[in-house]
């Protein structure tokens, strides 16, 4: 019995040893595959000891970090609210400023529209007035000479003056027929309605040649029955532009004073009528002693007349048999001017002594 009990005890000891061995073997086997870092499953001392102090040390740090995070989180909110308020304020100011600018622009546009409407009304009134009372045609007669070295320059200067005159206007330029004349080329570039007349006769006297050119122009006007106010414009004339407005007011004959200037002499001579308002009372003379002549010479540049006098004599109370202008129309005009001063109209009508025309001959 004792031996059996001993054998049973030995068997139990061996079983315990074998189980213990197997357990150790299994534990060792699996611990070989486990990681060797700090987070090992079996390093209980390393895990338990640091956890308690870490929780105690990090608690104030966590509070500090939470405060920082709350401040960081709240700071952009404050910044955003301040920026939104500022942006709204700026936007409000911008809208107010833009509204003021729009109101000012609308007021300016309204004033401009009113001015434009007034201008349009004035233009319409002027157009209606011109339609009811159209401007008279101005017939400007200009004799030229190929002997004048400044003819081209003087033609361009006079054309620049005539282009400033309100239409209608007809420029009649007369010259002797020559081959190398550039007058027609100059006239084409002026942009003015013109008639270029030529003649074949030769003259030795310059004054006779100029009178002949004027007669050529007057015969052309009579032949074609051009209706307008005729004015003899010399190339050496210098004008006040208001002079041409006064010409259109002439019904029959008109006259005006003219200042004769000299490029070499320091003197001014006044020729033309002496007026009381628009009524011709006498004539200025070249003589220094101012002696009066019954028949003073009349410079044609200081006279203008209605062209219908040439081709419609019955309109002016004359018969065609009395009037003979086929030979010398200029002589007929001078005779009509000197025959009766009462039919002459002084220009300008309110003050006939005002100088609107100057004659400045240039030395050739």
Strand and helix layout:
Layout: H1 2-33, H2 44-132, E1 138-143, H3 151-162, E2 169-176, H4 183-188, E3 194-199, H5 206-224, E4 229-232, E5 237-239, H6 242-247, E6 253-255, E7 258-261, E8 268-276, E9 279-284, E10 303-306, H7 308-311, H8 329-339, E11 344-346, E12 357-359
Parallel strand pairs: 1-2, 1-4, 2-3, 6-11, 7-12
Antiparallel strand pairs: 4-10, 5-12, 6-10, 7-8, 8-9
Protein name: Beta-1,4-xylosyltransferase IRX9
Short description:
It contains 8 helices and 12 strands.
Plain-language structure description:
- The protein contains eight helices and twelve strands.
- It has helices at 2-33, 44-132, 151-162, 183-188, 206-224, 242-247, 308-311, 329-339; strands at residues 138-143, 169-176, 194-199, 229-232, 237-239, 253-255, 258-261, 268-276, 279-284, 303-306, 344-346, 357-359.
- Strands 3-2-1-4-10-6-11 form a seven-stranded mixed beta sheet. Strands 5-12-7-8-9 form a five-stranded mixed beta sheet, with no helix packed on it.
- Mean pLDDT is 77; it is low at 38-60 and 288-292.
């Amino acid at each position: 019995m004792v031996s059996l009990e001993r054998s049973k005890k030995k068997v139990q000891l061996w079983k315990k040893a074998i189980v213990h061995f197997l357990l150790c073997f299994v534990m060792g086997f699996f611990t070989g595959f486990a990681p060797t870092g700090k987070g090992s499953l079996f390093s209980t001392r390393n895990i338990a000891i640091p956890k308690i102090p870490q929780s105690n040390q990090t608690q104030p740090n966590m509070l500090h970090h939470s405060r920082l995070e709350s401040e960081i989180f709240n700071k952009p909110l404050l910044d955003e609210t301040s920026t939104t308020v500022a942006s709204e304020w700026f936007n409000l100011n911008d809208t107010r400023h833009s509204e003021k600018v729009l109101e000012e622009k609308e007021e300016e546009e309204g004033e401009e529209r009113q001015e434009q409407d007034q201008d349009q009304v004035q233009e319409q009134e002027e157009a209606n007035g011109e339609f009811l009372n159209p401007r008279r045609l101005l017939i400007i007669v200009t004799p030229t000479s190929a002997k004048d070295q400044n003819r081209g320059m003087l033609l361009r200067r006079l054309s620049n003056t005539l282009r400033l005159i309100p239409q209608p206007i007809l420029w009649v330029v007369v010259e002797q027929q020559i081959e190398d004349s550039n007058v027609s080329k100059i006239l084409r570039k002026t942009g003015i309605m013109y008639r270029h007349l030529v003649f074949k006769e030769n003259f030795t006297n310059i004054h006779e040649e100029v009178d002949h050119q004027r007669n050529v122009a007057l015969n052309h006007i009579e032949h074609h029955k051009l209706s307008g106010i005729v004015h003899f414009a010399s190339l050496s004339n210098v004008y006040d532009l208001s002079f041409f407005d006064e010409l259109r007011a002439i019904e029959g004959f008109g006259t005006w004073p003219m200042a004769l200037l000299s490029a070499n002499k320091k003197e001014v001579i006044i020729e033309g009528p002496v007026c009381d308002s628009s009524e011709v009372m006498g004539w200025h003379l070249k003589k220094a002693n101012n002696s009066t002549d019954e028949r003073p010479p009349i410079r044609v540049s200081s006279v203008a007349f209605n062209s219908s006098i040439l081709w419609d004599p019955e309109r002016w109370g004359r018969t065609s048999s009395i009037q003979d202008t086929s030979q010398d129309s200029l002589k007929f005009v001078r005779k009509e001017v000197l025959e009766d001063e009462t039919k002459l109209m002084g220009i300008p009508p309110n003050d006939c002594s005002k100088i609107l025309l100057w004659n400045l001959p240039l030395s050739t």
